[in-house]
Amino acid sequence: MNSINILIVGVGGQGTLLASKLMGKIYIDKGYDVKVSEVHGMSQRGGSVVTYVRAGEKVFSPVIEKGEADVMISFEALESARWLPYLKKDGVVISNTAQIDPMPVIMGNAEYPENPLGIIENSGVKVIAADALGLAEEAGSAKSVNIVLLGIAAKQLGIDKDECLDAIRATVPQKTVEVNEKAFELGYNL
Amino acid sequence: MEKKLLLGNEAVARGLYEAGVRVVSSYPGTPSTEITEAVSKYEEIYSEWAPNEKVAFEVAIGASFGGARSFCAMKHVGLNVAADPLYTASYIGVNGGMVCAVADDPGMHSSQNEQDSRRHAIAAKVPMLEPSDSQEALDFTKIAYDLSERFDAPFLLRLSTRISHSRSLVTVNDRADMELKPYNRDVMKNVMMPAMARKAHAKVEARNALLTEWADTEAFELGVNRLELFSTEIGVIAAGSTYAYAREALGEKASYLKLGIVNPLPVNAIIEFAKKVKTLYVIEELDDIIETHCIKLGVKVIGREVFPPLGEYNQAIIAKAILNKENEFNTVDCDVPARPPVLCPGCPHRGLYYALKSLNLYVSGDIGCYTLGAQAPLSMMDTCVCMGASVSALHGYNTARGSEAAKKSIAVIGDSTFIHSGITGLIDIVYNKGISTVIVLDNSITGMTGHQNNPLNGKTIKGDPTTAVDLVSLAKAIGINRVRVVDPFDIKGTKAAVEEELQAEEPSLVISRRPCALLKSVKHEPALAVDQSKCVGCKACLKVGCPAISQKKQENGKTKAFIDPNQCLGCGVCIETCRLDAIVKNN
Description:
The structure holds 2 protein chains of 2 kinds.
Chain A: E1 4-11, H1 16-29, E2 33-37, E3 48-56, E4 69-74, H2 77-83, E5 87-96, H3 103-106, H4 116-122, E6 126-130, H5 132-139, H6 145-157, H7 161-171, H8 177-188
Parallel strand pairs in A: 1-4, 4-5, 5-6
Antiparallel strand pairs in A: 1-3, 2-3
Chain B: E1 3-7, H1 8-18, E2 23-26, H2 33-39, E3 46-49, H3 53-65, E4 70-75, H4 76-81, H5 83-92, E5 98-104, H6 118-124, E6 128-129, H7 134-151, E7 155-160, H8 161-164, E8 166-171, H9 187-190, H10 194-216, H11 218-222, E9 226-228, E10 234-239, H12 240-250, E11 255-259, E12 261-263, H13 268-276, E13 279-283, H14 289-296, H15 315-323, H16 348-357, E14 362-365, E15 383-384, H17 389-401, H18 403-406, E16 409-414, H19 415-431, E17 437-442, H20 471-477, E18 482-486, H21 491-503, E19 508-513, E20 528-530, E21 549-553, E22 559-563, E23 583-585
Parallel strand pairs in B: 2-3, 2-4, 4-5, 5-7, 6-7, 10-11, 10-13, 14-15, 14-16, 16-17, 17-19, 18-19
Antiparallel strand pairs in B: 1-8, 6-12, 9-11, 20-23, 21-22
């Protein structure tokens, strides 16, 4: 059983917690030991957020450190750049292409870097970029960005599609199952 | 037996359920809040949000007097508020078992200081257990009740952000059938006057000695303390999250004395463990409590010498300090601007702050979402100390600087924080003839901790209707004649009302009332839009500090305002900033 470290990053309020909860459930159902570490409180509210999902034979630490993540699932392009050091040298970035300006940029005190995903790619790191918001809207709800990204990650990590769909059905509210199934498919088949 | 992926906090709640706990009273505080939220889902347990941690702790003591197993939860600074009952409850002991969970926040993810709660356990001579994952959070909670009743002591359960907010697998069991213990009046035990307290103190010292012995013996049989012997080169003494980091970083390259009881600490076990390894490290976040204990025992350890006294640890810090090993990692070739937390789009606090910004006031601040208004561009806070301090510290400031200062200063305090400990400060102002102006930001919920009901919003922890404290009547009853209610989205009206109250030669209470934008019951207006033909890119609208408004470069190279329709809730505060009426309702 290989150990797997998944870093989920984004902007507070984007739905990163549900994505990490689902990832955790998927690996438990596969028989792994799992630890998921979340961020609550002041760190949300539009701030940079990170969640760690770790799976393996036996997992001790709930956190992922620099150079340890196999995959980073990012909900926003700048956040991909911020958390890049946490990725393994040969890790993969799965990122939403959305750009959300942080307050220092809004205030004109800092600049949003031009094409952060391109910069990452040019440094030799594999990047799978997707307009997750567009796909989520296509699935029927802008809120399903997290499930679109989960679909892309599942494909990348070689997780069985049905295992993911079972976890989604068991976790999301009943009335959103259909939209989320569709969002997952759109990501998975990207 | 069923296995579940539970947050440390949810596992504590499950432990309470399985231990047969009957009464739970808490005040929300990150990272402890979800314990009591999870408890509220169990029909078998009475649960409540108390106005503050002192009340919660006292409710739990009372339930223990009454023969029930009882519990309260709070964050580290909350235990300061509850310290008064804690220290004397230690002398009294329990009838039904009593446990208080206290969640520390190393790294200060959501706190104003980084204090180490083990200090309270030592000072109050109260035993303290510390789990290192969710399974232990459940197990130790149950064990704490058995020990509480056996040793006649309230127990502290120390958590930290990483334990409280990490999910790991937990095996769950059924609830124990705990009968209510009989109540017998026992004045010598339960009434702390000097004569009784002197005897009780002696009892506490004897209890501590017995618990030290327990930590050296039975704690190992129960698995609360644990010896894991691998390599004899490196020895590690650790508890809680630092054990998890050490185990991850060092694997079988070290041997471990893993402590589950952190007050009192074992003696013989440490001396014996030290003999088994060549180099012994103590790894503990925040204060050097275990290290100091080892030094007192004459055991040579390495601790503060290589590990910092601040912030959260992780496996990388430990691998670097002990193995001199570092991971390789990618770096990114651009400046990455910070992304600090901000007031949400549609937040009523933004309206209030923006309305008062031009008055250039001294703002005595408090703890809650509205503390975020301290940052640019709103920059509407001069001080923030602890829960309730905005009101009393404003009185101090105005007393020091005189009535002219009082006409240029306000306190801002949230609804829940006001009930927690703002009321007493307000009474101080009235009683001592102050003329300060206090603003309660009443958003109908305890916001920052993730939406808990409170005594002002008329709902219990389970969402059932209850009597709501009437803030206007309360203010009048304590002697405030000038009470105003304003809508913070009415920028002009709010500003005018506060200006008027500032001039009054007596104390005023302004209630800035509008529910939190994130409440499900709040209906929002459609997203606003920028009329590009009118916008000249003056950036005035950026001064409200709304994450939904930014600048976007046009094809002709000019920048103009842009409102993100996915974020904007149509509150309209930004409309007030635009002299060209370029911000419009989007049809």
